[in-house]
Amino acid sequence: MDAETQENHLKAYGVTYWTLERELKVKWLLNYRGGSFLLPDADIIRKECQIRGVSYEILSDNQASQILEDISSPAVNQEAVVLEKAPKIAVYTPYGKQPWDDAVTMVLTYAEIPYETVYDEQVLKDELLLYDWLHLHHEDFTGQYGKFYRAYRSAAWYIEEKRNAEELAQKLGFSKVSEAKLAVSLKIRDYVVGGGFMFAMCSATDSFDIALAAEGIDICEPMFDGDGSDAGYQNKIDFSKTFAFKDFILESSPNIYEFSSIDMTRKRQIPMTTDYFSLMEYSAKWDPIPTMLTQNHTALIKGFMGQTTSFTRDQIKSNVLVMGENRTNMEAKYIHGIKGKGFFTFYGGHDPEDYTHRVGDPKTELDLHPTSPGYRLILNNVLFPAAKKKKQKT
To answer: 103, 192, 233, 344: most buried by Cβ count inside 10 Å?
Structure first.
């Protein structure tokens, strides 16, 4: 899985998942040649690699044993983690989603990793308990329809999505979309606390935490929910309820395409040509979880925008790990934390291979980006629940 020899990093994750589906164990060699996978040698696996265009090497038993022995040395920052079972994956996504879509569903499809979709009805029926891993599609959990009001309130797709959301909320027994989204957010919170793995990108990151912090408080203006917001709602926000963020200021104007001060989009002044973020390095033996989540063939990754591009560093809770950051701009891009018995990862930005990705843009063709390090971070999270867990030091 290093930069020099792997022709398709993304589909390599798919082959690894495919192997786990066949109840064969895999060793993830952390920090060894870009985070390589040691798979059993079988004709069907070789053929699958060939079909999918994944580079591989055949090792003798002695060679494999020597690699594992070298990795086990205390002198090297490497570790072999056993992957035991293919996680069952759910993507929380609205019906009839638009073509400017979601990086996770694109890369899962490209890597040929199966997933099922769920939405508000399934979440409220506790169907998340059927899954090991949950991704939150580009979503607004605050009931403000993505803060698209100023630019798109007259667009047919915006009007239709608003009407559909209101009809679904009423069908589920709620008078407002914001109330329905809060109920969904609380169910997702309980899923994580109970031991689930949650991954979110772009606006699903901060809007989820804002919804939790604003429980019982009306932060929506009349164009969103038909009535006024609560007076002085900023002072009523409870940061103890969030997963990752603290001390943020909500954006009250419906005409500003922003949820809060968590996001760095409007604050950053970085040219596209120099917009990169770096991955942190962890002890593979003592901190295998963040090490797994940061496996890559490069430590420097191209930045990319989104409604929520990145996170204000001083508004991240102290118990949350910043795994990817732009140090010149003091912003966090990729963060991870523990909530109860479960785990969450937030990744800023919309599409790792489409810098601005505006509404209506065509989808990214991953055949053009088979070695994308930005997309690899997503797939690290997909395989993370398959690992046999060890107690981490951090």
So the answer is: 103
The helix or strand, by DSSP H or E, that contains position 179, with its residue range, turns out to be: helix 177-193
Phi, psi of 346 (to 5 degrees): -115, 130
Q: For residue 214, what are the contacts with CB-CB under 8 A and spacing of at least 6?
A: 142, 182, 233, 236, 237, 250
| Cβ–Cβ < 8 Å for 357, 337 | no
Place of tokens 């005409």: 255
Mark whether 118 and 59 lie in a shared domain: no
Nearest-5° Cα angle at 316, 312 to 317: 165
Distance, CA of 339 to CA of 352 (rounded, Å): 26
> Would 269 be classed as within a structural domain?
yes
Q: Same domain, yes or no, for 96 and 73?
A: no
Q: Rounded to whole angstroms, how far apart are CA atoms 130 and 124?
A: 13
Beta pairing class for 331-339 and 321-326:
antiparallel
Task: Look up residue 11 and give its amino acid.
Answer: K
DSSP labels, 112-124: T---EEE-HHHHH
What is the amino acid identity at position 193? Answer: V
Tokens linked to 259: 């949820």
> What count of other Cβ atoms lies within 10 Å of the Cβ of residue 241?
15
DSSP state of 94: -
> 3-class SS at 71?
helix
In-domain check, residue 394: no
Quote the crossing angle between the two packed helices 156-171 and 177-193, to the nearest 10°. 70
Closest to 182 (Cα-Cα) out of 137, 212, 207: 212
Using one digit for the tens of pLDDT, what is the confidence trace for 150-178? 878 888 888 888 998 899 999 999 999 99
Question: What is d(CA 14, CA 220) in angstroms, rounded to the nearest whole number?
Answer: 41
Tell the burial category of 4 from Cβ atoms under 10 Å away from its Cβ (0-12, 13-18, 19+).
Answer: exposed
Domain-ending residue, one of 83, 100, 115: 83
pLDDT of residue 61: 96
pLDDT in tens, 245-277: 999 999 999 888 889 999 999 998 888 999 999
Question: Dihedral of CA 4/5/10/13: which sign?
Answer: negative
How many other C-beta atoms are found inside a 10 Å radius of the C-beta of residue 257?
A: 19
Containing domain of residue 47, as a range?
A: 9-83
